[in-house]
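To the wet lab folks,

You asked to see what we're planning to order before we commit. Fair enough. Below is the target structure as tokens, and below that is the sequence we designed to fit it. If anything looks off to you, flag it before the synthesis order goes out.
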């Protein structure tokens, strides 16, 4: 705003944002700080755009302005156009600051713009008022306060000592208020009124969403509810319905495709959806996180949910939530089919056809969508399970497999797979339970929970047998073989892998044969038998070469396996070629974890060549990735770095 004023000319600043975000306070403070720059004074009008009354007639504001500027009441015209003409004549040479608070529309404001090039206008509105752009206006979007500033505001109200004594709860309280100044001020008022009330106690009271709005109110009413109601009531009927429905979304943010599904846009409905989204953005009831991606402010979402409960029957609200959950499943299944088309899946019958689920051009786009929507997919699974939609909850867990395969987020994987097991049991589907137990066993093994891993793995074998699935039994037994390898039982693991491979060869799935050759070959290399491993790895490479369009991920894993075997045989050139190719192709596939594993191989090869500096560089690169992924592999790589003279502290 200062820089806008410095540019000269007829400056117009429009402060837009949701009710309670501090637009009026900012405008008044800035006006007060700059009052000496306007020698002819300031004009102020509350335009009552969202006060609950009718917006102020521009003629009423003009009459007040003209009188303040010294025009005799009997000289003020009755006709609005004549009032505007007189106002512009009177202000033509004046150095004025005009503050127009709570504007409803660009038309309402335009009548009140002075003609002077040495005047400045500050407008506040919950709408973006883009209609003022041709008049030279610049829009300033105000969002909630960042966490640090929100805590500072609390401290100014209740005293910094009280905040410093409970800095953790103070941050939580600021988060529960969503950084919205009006909510923070109300919370601070409660704390000031009750000096013995701890912040921790208040956080506990506000943690319940159902009680939060009631607590964040004053003795003479609820300002947050009232502000929301004014913005909400100004919406068109269709936009108000959409807003109520979006408030039921299980996650924190969502894409325009989800909006289309909720709105039931149908084919060719993109323009209608864009118009509705535009109306909600214009009313500052929706935040634009990025292109075609939005969120509802936490406090306003609670208000909207209250209104939804008042206007929408329970059955209708449940239907909207079910639509959202099934939207995420439909979109994730499309991504799953692009990334891992070879997987065995259970069918699912959707309640009704859905609008909006995206199509994916390639694996990269599908994986990017799964990663972006990870939080929503996980929350959708929790909500589905909580509502008793157990089959849907299992499907939402199952469909995240491509992301878990490529990205390796074990903390998320444990939660996803555990929910999948519980959902399958509640659903009563033995095969679904077996499949998720197999996954959970592997996840537990990767984080070092070996007892749980063996328990889940053996249970998976039993459930697959109960379901009569021979391939599933072999899959689960291979998982147990991998567990033996992870826990240092190499001979037992090798024997188990050999039995599994024999069983695989009796089944029609050639891809599974390739996986077993790869697993056994990598184990043999690790136990000092690279010459025995090489034929198995070569066979795996031939199998996956024919499946490169279907399963490129394991084709690249074979390259890493071959690199390790060649390294064990002393063929450093062949090892480096395979490892470097694995790094490049895993990067193309977006699998940071497996790329880092191949980079570790390059480090080991460099160390064997005697190039410790190159080895340290590779180990540091891999350690950075494993650290970011919270991978259990990090300590091993730090040890290698230390052995190469790098020092773990340098990472």
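Sequence we intend to order:
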């Amino acid at each position: 705003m200062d820089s806008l004023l410095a540019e000269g000319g007829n400056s117009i600043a429009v402060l837009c944002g949701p009710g309670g975000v501090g637009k009026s306070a900012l405008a008044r403070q800035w006006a007060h700080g700059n009052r000496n720059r306007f020698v002819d004074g300031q004009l102020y009008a509350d335009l009552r755009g969202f006060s609950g009354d009718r917006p102020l007639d521009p003629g009423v504001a003009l009459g007040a302005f003209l009188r303040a500027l010294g025009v005799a009441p009997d000289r003020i015209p009755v006709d609005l156009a004549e009032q505007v003409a007189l106002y512009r004549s009177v202000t033509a040479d004046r150095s004025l600051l005009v503050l127009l608070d709570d504007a409803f529309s660009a038309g309402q404001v335009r009548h009140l713009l002075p003609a002077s090039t040495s005047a400045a206008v500050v407008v506040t509105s919950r709408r973006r008022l883009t209609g003022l752009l041709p008049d030279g206006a610049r829009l300033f979007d105000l969002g909630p306060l960042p966490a640090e500033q929100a805590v500072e505001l609390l401290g100014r109200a209740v005293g910094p000592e009280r905040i410093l004594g409970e800095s953790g709860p103070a941050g939580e309280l600021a988060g529960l208020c969503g950084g919205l100044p009006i909510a923070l001020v109300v919370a601070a008022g409660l704390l000031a009124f009750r000096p013995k009330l701890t912040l921790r106690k208040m956080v506990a009271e506000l943690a319940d969403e159902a009680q939060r709005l009631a607590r964040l109110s004053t003795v003479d009413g609820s300002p947050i509810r009232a502000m929301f109601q004014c913005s909400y009531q100004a919406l068109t009927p269709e936009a108000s319905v959409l807003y109520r429905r979006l408030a039921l979304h299980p996650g924190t943010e969502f894409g325009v495709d989800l909006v289309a599904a909720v709105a039931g846009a149908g084919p060719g409905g993109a323009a209608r959806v864009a118009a509705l989204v535009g109306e909600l953005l214009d009313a500052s009831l929706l935040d634009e996180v990025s292109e075609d991606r939005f969120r509802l402010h936490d406090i306003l979402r609670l208000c909207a949910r209250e209104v939804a409960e008042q206007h929408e029957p329970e059955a209708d609200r449940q239907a909207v939530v079910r639509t959202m959950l099934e939207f995420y499943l439909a979109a994730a299944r499309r991504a799953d089919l692009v990334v891992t088309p070879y997987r065995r899946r259970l069918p699912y019958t959707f309640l009704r056809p859905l609008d909006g689920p995206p199509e994916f051009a390639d694996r990269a786009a599908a994986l990017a969508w799964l990663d972006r929507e990870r939080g929503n997919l996980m929350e959708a699974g929790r909500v589905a399970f909580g509502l008793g939609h157990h089959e849907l909850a299992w499907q939402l867990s199952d469909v995240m497999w491509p992301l878990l395969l490529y990205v390796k987020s074990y903390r998320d994987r444990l939660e996803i797979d555990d929910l999948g097991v519980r959902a399958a049991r509640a659903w009563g589907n033995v095969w679904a339970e077996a499949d998720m137990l197999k996954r959970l066993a592997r996840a537990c093994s990767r984080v070092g929970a070996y007892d749980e891993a063996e328990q889940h793995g053996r249970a998976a074998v039993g459930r697959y047998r109960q379901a009569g699935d021979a391939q599933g039994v072999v899959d689960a037994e291979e998982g147990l073989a991998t567990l033996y390898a992870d826990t240092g039982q190499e001979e037992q693991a090798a024997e188990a892998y050999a039995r599994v491979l024999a069983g695989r060869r009796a089944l029609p799935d050639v891809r599974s044969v390739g996986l077993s050759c790869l697993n056994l070959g990598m184990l043999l290399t690790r136990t000092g038998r690279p010459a025995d491993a090489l034929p198995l790895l070569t066979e795996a490479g031939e199998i996956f070469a024919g499946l490169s369009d279907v399963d490129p991920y394991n084709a690249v894993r074979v390259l890493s396996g071959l690199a390790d075997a060649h390294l064990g045989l002393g063929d450093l050139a062949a090892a480096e070629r395979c490892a470097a190719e694995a790094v490049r192709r895993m990067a193309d596939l977006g699998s940071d974890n497996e790329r880092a594993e191949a980079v570790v191989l390059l480090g080991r090869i460099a160390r064997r060549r005697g190039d410790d500096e190159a080895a340290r560089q590779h180990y540091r690169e891999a350690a950075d990735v494993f650290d970011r992924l919270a991978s259990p592999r990090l300590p091993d790589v730090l040890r290698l770095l230390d052995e190469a003279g790098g020092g773990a502290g340098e990472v």
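Structural context that might help your review: The chain has five domains: 2-141, 147-221, 226-312, 314-428, 448-508. The chain has 33 helices and eight strands.

Thanks,
Computational group
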